[in-house]
Design a protein that fits this description.
It comes from Gossypium schwendimanii. There is one protein chain. The chain has 532 residues and is mainly alpha-helical. It has two domains: 167 residues, no CATH class; 209 residues, Methane Monooxygenase Hydroxylase, Chain G, domain 1 (Up-down Bundle), CATH 1.20.58.220. The protein is 75% helix and 1% strand. A two-stranded parallel sheet has the order 1-2. α3 packs across α4 and α6 runs antiparallel to α9. The radius of gyration is 36 Å and the shape is elongated.
Length: 532
């Protein structure tokens, strides 16, 4: 009896204990999506508070229009046609003031054209008699509201007014059909226009007076942020290229998806490259806005912001190419990269400082001369070019790098010439010394042991994609023909540094176009002049 009790007590509790966690997990699973959604919504609102303000503004505009229906006195005046005011607010209200005015213009123009056409066709159809009237109305709907309007809105120059053509389609159909049943198209059209005008006025009134969001300010801020992102990305790329002794190569899938979590500035630079459509949209919306805030000039040159953004993306392409070299499979040895560190770092820092200065001038709406900054950028770039030219033997297969790659090469800054004659003399000395070194190294390599050659080859494979078949395994031993192959491998890896510096120099050259574009914007926008 006790044994059975004990067995019952042992068998029963596990199912009960197992069920309780399942119920708890089930209730937790049901509650988790709700908590996750609330948290994601909170983060979404915290990221941009203007989104919450926009939502409340739309609710306020719809409420004000709905009062015309809820209040008996207003409803007796406007009747059921006041519903068009609610539809107008829902269609016309946009995030920024410029977009709202643009939608309102398309809405008003489309409704006016549709009303005129509907009145004309309705009156003409009434003159033809009861039999032909529905036929004419049906043909007009097919031709005017369907075929012709849909074809014209596809015209390239009329694409910005696509919303207006859509308004023509459904407004014409509503007016012509309701006018046919009521028998008075003119009265129907006027009631629709009054209701649409009320809705448009309420939408514009709320959007302008209640926490207005100007597209011009957003365009201004977006362009300045792009300047800062480009400068940060350039400094980040050069810093990682020079400081990482062993560049960690990302997986192929990460390279394809551009997933580099340790490079936040790279993601911002990639966003800058994809900002063309956003800048053009904001510029188009800004043209509809009245003078406001710091932009008090009529006919403000918003299109120049788009041009500056295009030149900025032209420079950003080079920064993305630098990131491509940074994450490429072929890498120059660390001691070779560190030998040119000061020159590369100086050129990159000077270029980033110039980019930030241009963005700061746009933000402050000031026009300043960039002669001194440009001179410093050009001088640092020319210095880098001279160093690469003088020590080009380091990048050729005739020069062997030291075996100990952890020891960097001597700094090259102290050997820079001061005059053109010093450049020629040093080039002659370098050529003669280089010839002696190459012959000595070749003789030494021919007499090296098998073990030493295998050790050098394994070190070189750290900077080059490793191959499955070793050159020594093909021939079964040491051969003279292997030396040119190994030198070619070393030279190709060293040329990665040449590619990086060439892209950096090209970026500096493109900065001249960026300075010209910003200067043109400052002239047309009448920025305050400030001499450095």
């Amino acid at each position: 009896m006790n044994g059975k009790k004990g067995s019952v007590e042992i068998d029963i509790p596990p199912p009960n204990k197992a069920k309780q966690p399942e119920d708890g997990n089930k209730s937790g699973f049901q509650g988790f999506p709700c908590k996750a959604w609330i948290w994601s919504a909170w983060e979404f609102c915290k990221d941009d508070v203007d989104r919450v303000i926009f939502s409340f503004k739309v609710g306020l505009a719809v409420l004000l229009v709905s009062l015309l229906i809820l209040l008996r006195g207003a409803y007796e005046i406007f009747g059921t046609n006041i519903i068009w005011s609610i539809i107008t607010v829902a269609i016309m209200f946009e995030y920024t003031v410029g977009e709202t005015f643009n939608r309102g213009f398309n809405r008003a123009l489309g409704s006016l054209l549709a009303a005129i056409l509907a009145i004309a066709v309705g009156e003409l159809a009434q003159l033809t008699g009861r039999i032909a009237e529905p036929i004419i109305i049906g043909l007009s709907i097919f031709l005017i509201a369907g075929a012709i309007t849909s074809f014209v809105k596809l015209w390239p120059s009329l694409v910005p007014y696509e919303h207006g053509f859509r308004v023509i389609i459904f407004t014409y159909c509503f007016i012509i059909v309701s006018g046919y049943r009521m028998g008075n198209p003119i009265r129907t059209s006027m009631d629709r226009l009054y209701s649409i005008a009320i809705g448009g006025f309420v939408a514009a009134f709320v959007n302008v007076l209640v926490f207005p969001m100007w597209a011009g300010e957003q365009l201004h801020e977006e362009l300045v942020n792009s300047f800062n992102s480009l400068a940060d990305s350039l400094e980040e790329c050069v810093k990682k290229y020079l400081e990482d002794e062993e560049l960690n190569q990302a997986e192929f899938s990460e390279k394809v998806m551009d997933e580099f979590p340790d490079e936040p500035a790279y993601r911002k630079c990639r966003t800058t490259l994809n900002s063309s459509a956003k800048l053009e949209s904001l510029a188009d919306a800004s043209k509809w806005e009245p003078p406001h805030g710091r932009f008090r000039n009529f006919f403000y040159p918003w299109s120049e912001y788009v041009k500056v953004g295009a030149v900025l993306r032209y420079c950003a392409y080079e920064v993305m190419a630098l990131h491509g070299v940074l994450h490429s499979e072929i890498q120059a040895p660390y001691n070779l990269r560190i030998a040119f560190q000061s020159e590369i770092q100086d050129a990159a820092n000077q270029a980033a400082e110039l980019v930030r200065s241009l963005g700061k001038d746009i933000w402050n709406m000031k026009r300043s001369l960039k002669t001194s900054l440009l001179n410093r950028v050009h001088s640092s770039t020319e210095r880098l070019q001279r160093v690469i030219d003088m020590h080009s033997y380091l990048l050729t297969p005739h020069y062997d790098l030291p075996d100990n790659s952890s020891n960097p090469l001597p700094k090259l800054s102290h050997v820079l010439p001061t005059t053109p004659y010093d450049v020629l003399d040093q080039e002659d000395d370098v050529c003669s010394t280089n010839h002696e070194k190459s012959s000595n190294h070749l003789t030494q390599n021919l007499t090296e042991s098998y073990y030493e050659m295998m050790r050098k080859q394994s070190r070189r494979l750290n900077s080059w994609p490793s191959s499955e078949v070793d050159p020594f395994e093909k021939g079964g031993g040491f051969r003279i023909g292997i030396l040119p192959q190994m030198r070619a491998v070393k030279s190709t890896a060293a040329l990665s540094l040449t590619t990086f510096t060439s892209l950096l120099i090209e970026f500096v050259i493109r900065l001249d176009h960026l300075v010209e574009a910003v200067d043109e914007l400052s002239k047309m926008a009448k920025f305050k002049h400030e001499d450095l």
